[in-house]
Amino acid sequence: MEEASNQNINDLPEELLLRILTFLPTLDSIQTSLISQKWRPLWSRVPSLNLPFELFPSYEPPLDTRQFFAEFIDRVLILRSNSPIHTFRLSFIYHDHYGSHVDSWVRSAITHLHARELHLDFFIHKDFHDEETLNHKYDFPFSVLRNGYVENLCVTRCDLTLPAKMSTMRFCSIGSMYLDQVYLTDQIMSDLILGCPNLEALELQNCWGHHHLKICSTRLQKLVLGYFYDSELQETLVIDCPNLFSISFDCCAFDKFVLKNASSLVEFHVDIVHLIDGSYCYWSKVVRLLGQAPNVKHLNVQNWWFKFLTSKDPFPKSFMLHNVNLLELRTGFTQYDLVGMAALLKLCPNLETMILQYLFKIGEDVIRRVTK
């Protein structure tokens, strides 16, 4: 007991110390080098780089903060060892002035450090931006990924510069992709799917530039679509992924939804904001896709079922959700909500678990208003 009480953190194995440092921002892990001689080189061998601009000490004027942060990252990449890392995570308030800096950071993470996960966030939060910074977006050089081993790609608020022959190239390492606030035309989406043949998980948030968006892949297993609300065009969405296991629609307002080859679909999530003009219309269009997904077991949905079942175009009487055994229902508890809930339960004869989450509504009860 006496021997154990004399031990301290310096006595821990180096592998464990490195594991501890992976949970710290890189700036903090560097500061641990002051603890003792043993700690001095450890930060340079941590299998991740976590570089959040929002946690970097601020300076006046704010432009100096960005300059010092850029110089800090340059120094980190020079001093750390060339041993491969698992994760490279960067957040930054981008300006064209720092384009060459960011290019060198990205290339270093991919080609020298062989990062498996690449997270680039150029938005962070609206409080960090002004009109000038919102007009500058980083052009991510997608072709650099051919020289690395990135499996999980996450980018926020940037443009994708794809190689001219993207559709015929093979970025085989990429298995997961998250795109947020990215200009995404129909052609870019098609090229990404074709160029990443092993893509299994795709999440698109706040993207724009599309008109007839087609997501067609024999490999894709998980698809998340969020905040497709801004366009005034009559947009269509076609999903044809025969091995798709999970799908989520969060605030999607396409004019037309098409779901094909959905026999593998097991998880189905839909959430449409209530107080948006025509929101019920988009909700009902998504819910109708259940008619093409007979094997859904996990259903997560809002309770607008009273309005849906009393509409002029409900599901056919033969429609049933025979395989649903887990239902997560966001609902109020008005008489209309309860009638809709009862109707939905009749469609799920083999339900085993139901989770009710209260649906907060601003102003009048939407379901009550639209059913008058």
Automatic annotation (TrEMBL):
Superkingdom: Eukaryota
SMART domains associated with the record: FBOX
Gene3D superfamilies: 1.20.1280.50, Ribonuclease Inhibitor (3.80.10.10)
Chain ranges of the F-box domain: 6-56
Designated name of the protein: F-box/LRR-repeat protein At3g26922-like isoform X2
